[in-house]
Amino acid sequence: MSGSSPLSRFQPVLALRSRILRAIRQFFDARGFLEVETPVRIAAPALELHIDAMPSGDAWLRTSPELHMKRLLAAGCERVYQLGPCFRQGERGERHNPEFTLLEWYRTNADYRDILAETKALIAAVAEAALGRTWIDFSRTHIELMPVWEVLTVTEAFKTFAGWNPVEYFDADRFDLDMVNKVEPNLPTACPVVLMDYPAAVAALARRKPEDPRVAERWELYIGGIEIANAFSELTDPAEQRKRFEACAVERRALGKPVYPLDEYFMAALESGLPPAAGIALGVDRLVMLLAGATSLDGVLPFRDP
Amino acid sequence: MYSASDLRKGLRVEIDGVPYVIADFNFVKPGKGASIYNCRLKNMITGATLTRSYRSNDTLNEPKLEERTMRYSYKDGDEYVFLDKNFEQLTVRAEVLGDNRFLLVEEIEVDILIHNDVPIGVELPTFVEKTIVETEPGARGNTATNVLKPAKIEGGYEIQVPLFINQGDVIRIDTRTGGYSDRVRTA
After folding, report:
1. Between chains, do B36 and A255 touch, taking CB under 8 Å as contact?
2. What is the number of helices (H) and of strands (E) in chain A?
């Protein structure tokens, strides 16, 4: 690249990103995962209240490869991962881009705690391969990525930082607002933080915790206060899943949002029997941003519109 | 009417009848949660700031703002009278001008920001020329511009000028800072 193009300043970050992608593939290949590619343009995006798909002709661009990847699990694949673009309507900010790269991986006979252990190993391997170290300086904060990850339940985090317990009494509006304005900005930053066990209402595709059905087996990873990944034990009960999709369709219609058709191929896969499974979506652009020490996606996405 | 997704830095909005400009803007969204549009807003009349969080379904009014290029004509008590090219008259109260009222020069062209027919801001040209009416005699030969002394311009407004400036000199004032810029001519 010549020095005259505005793109040339991205040269170091492009090299870093390339090392990160290679390290991710090496990590999963060594663990016996199958790298897969599923359709980007789809007929039926997963119905979630606050995730909006971009139309593409008579179909939609995927907001996540989740449903297709779970179909592969039901078809007998035990470990699959995918790296690829996803699209979400109206999401544009310092840490959001309407087109972004997600890493998703799924395993059968695993739960969200197994995925947590694997995520920790992945972050260590990627940081080591990409930077040669497992610490970063981010936004004037020194963060040790290893060996300690602080795990807080959503209940603990909300009681501490927002003064109420969303598991006992759930208020959707207040939950989102306090999450971004009170909880996230006050999370510890010296090490990665995991928020665990979300109110069941905010986990459309996750399994309820058997010991406490008020919460779903879902966790989110924060590094430097930035949300990096979302994981859960998969809901495998087709009747419950259909009920949640249908309830979500009603809510979306009430908000005047497009209601996507139910993915009957996915429903059929659940009905044919999905073994216990867990999976995760990790924002690759945000991970690159953190490892590059950049505080905005502007620093790592060379082709982003200003 | 703006919807939350229209919000961006620099946009002017109206809250409770008051015009605000968005000084800082950030789109945030918790995983699987609703979009939240965090804004730091600056009151265009008082300059005070406040922070607000908006959701996708929120709407904000567009303030009725108008900008008019006018010339300063005369002062009438606490009010300053401006005329446009059709000699239509507009009166601006002293507190809207702030210290800029001392920097007005007859016939000077300004941009006046008007909200619901009430002037709320007056933007002067970057430089205005003013005559020094009172200062200690200049130190001849001292051309240093970093050593300053007080001086009064017409209207009694005091600014800091270099030592070589004399009573009767005409200087240029930078209206963005209200400070001395350079000397135009000597007395």
Report:
1. no
2. 8, 14
Nearest CA-CA partner of A181 in B54, B174, B172: B54
Residue A306 has pLDDT above 80, yes or no: no
Print burial letters for B21-52: b (CB count within 10 Å at least 16), e (below 16).
bbeebbbbbbbbbbbbbbbebbebbeeeeeeb
Looking at residue A2, what is its pLDDT?
Answer: 52
B147/B128 Cα distance (integer angstroms):
22
User: Are B32 and A184 within 8 A, CB to CB?
Assistant: no
B42-65: per-residue pLDDT in tens? 999 989 999 999 998 899 999 999
Q: Which two tokens stand for residue B122?
A: 């007056």
CB-nearest to A93 from B27, B32, B33 is B27
pLDDT digits (tens, 9 = 90+) for A228-238: 999 999 999 99
- Chain-chain contact of A50 with B26 (C-beta, under 8 angstroms): no
Residue B27 to residue A91, Cβ atoms within 8 A: yes
A2: helix, strand or coil: coil
Q: How many CA atoms lie within 13 A of A203 on its CB side?
A: 29
ipTM over 0.90: no
Question: Are A173 and B29 within 8 A, CB to CB?
Answer: no
Domains of chain A are: 2-299 (3.30.930.10)
Cα gap B36→A1, rounded to integer Å: 39
pLDDT band at A93 (very low <50, low <70, confident <90, very high): very high
Cβ pair B115, B45 in contact under 8 A: yes
Among B5, B36, B56, select the one facing A180 at the smallest CB separation.
B36
A120-161 pLDDT, tens per residue?
999 999 999 999 999 999 989 999 999 999 999 999 999 999
What proportion of chain A, given as a percentage, has pLDDT over 70? 99
Size of interface A-B (CB pairs under 8 A): 58
Q: How far is CA B6 from the centre of its chain?
A: 26
Q: What is the pTM of this model?
A: 0.86
From residue A197, how far is each of A112, A248, B104 by CA, in Å?
10, 21, 64
A51 contacts on B by Cβ (under 8 Å): 32
Nearest CA of chain B to the CA of A218: how many Å?
Answer: 11
